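If you are new to this repository, start here. Below is one unmodified record pulled from the training split, so you can see the exact layout before writing a loader.
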Amino acid sequence: MRLDHISYAAGPDGLASTAARIGGLLGREFTDGGVHPRFGTRNMILPLADDTYVEVVEVLDHPASDKAPFGQAVRARSALGGGWLGWCVAVDDLASIEHRLGRAAALGNRHRPDGTELRWRQIGINGLITDPQLPFFIKWESPAELHPSRGGDGKISMAKVELAGDPQRVSEWLGASLETPDKLYVEWVAPHGTPGLQAVQFQTPNGLVRI
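And here is the target side for that same chain:
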């Protein structure tokens, strides 16, 4: 179990402008990630070190965005002005999480601008919607060399994911202890406060950047 990526919902200025603003703070440009046809969303990607990445995501005017929980989550966060949407944990054993949550994972896919299709299965968006401190889970079906973290220069890395809420609740949701900061990067900034992802710290060539 490890942190896979963090998601930021585009603000009223739209996907490209939101990505450009965050990229400017980090000193790197985001690239077009493509469309999630099953979710009614699209994203832009910034690869990080250690097999992680950041996505800025925007909801599309598409029927899928009204039906898919991920599209609903993005729409709701963007309607509030945009901001950090959530964090995603990669797992090897998705079946045990499906059993524990009592439902099947959803198929996900994304078509990059060059036509390459990425495929995965994910679960836990409904939990994220009702309790924003909770991560969702992903298991990639595409080859490792196509993971969105590939293609960066490795000079920007995740430092901390600042969470507020209940550590015990998140540990129970994960089915594992949070005492693995090298893999999940979690720092509790306000235990038992208003839950959710408060900020993310990045280590860059120009020093630590907190967004």
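Two things worth knowing about this chain: The first helix runs from residue 15 to 26. The mean pLDDT is 92.
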